[in-house]
Design goal:
Order of helices and strands: EEEEEEEEH
Mean pLDDT: 92
Strand content: 35-45%
Number of strands: 8
Helix content: 10-25%
Length: 112
């Protein structure tokens, strides 16, 4: 089980486009998640967005760096950024992403 939530306990059904960068030393990194029309911004969604929670069997990773994207005043997307400041955070995040990718059919691609 690996899922993303914007309100604790409510799985986001829209699968994110994820871009990951890593420092040259391998000690830090940044992951940017882009959700096109997620259920969390649907007008029928009644819960508050309190952050982005990445939940799996190891526990929870979270970030409060979550922003809505709007077009003509209408919510269209959510972009969230998770910053990894240590090798341990990087390794834990990668384990989560392997599980999330497997469950959601995501593939890796390397861009230079």
């Amino acid at each position: 089980m690996a899922e993303i939530q914007f309100s604790r306990g409510i799985k986001e059904e829209v699968v994110a486009d994820v871009r990951i960068t890593r420092s040259k030393t391998g000690q830090t990194g940044t992951a940017t998640f882009y959700f096109q029309k997620p259920q969390a911004i649907d007008k029928d969604f009644k819960e508050d967005i309190t952050g982005m929670y990445m939940v799996d069997e190891e526990g929870e990773i979270s970030t409060s760096n979550v922003n809505g994207k709007f077009v003509n005043g209408e919510p269209m997307a959510i972009e969230a950024t998770y910053i990894m400041k240590s090798r341990e955070q990087w390794d834990r995040f990668i384990r989560f992403m392997e599980r999330y990718s497997e469950e959601n059919g995501l593939t890796k691609s390397k861009q230079d």
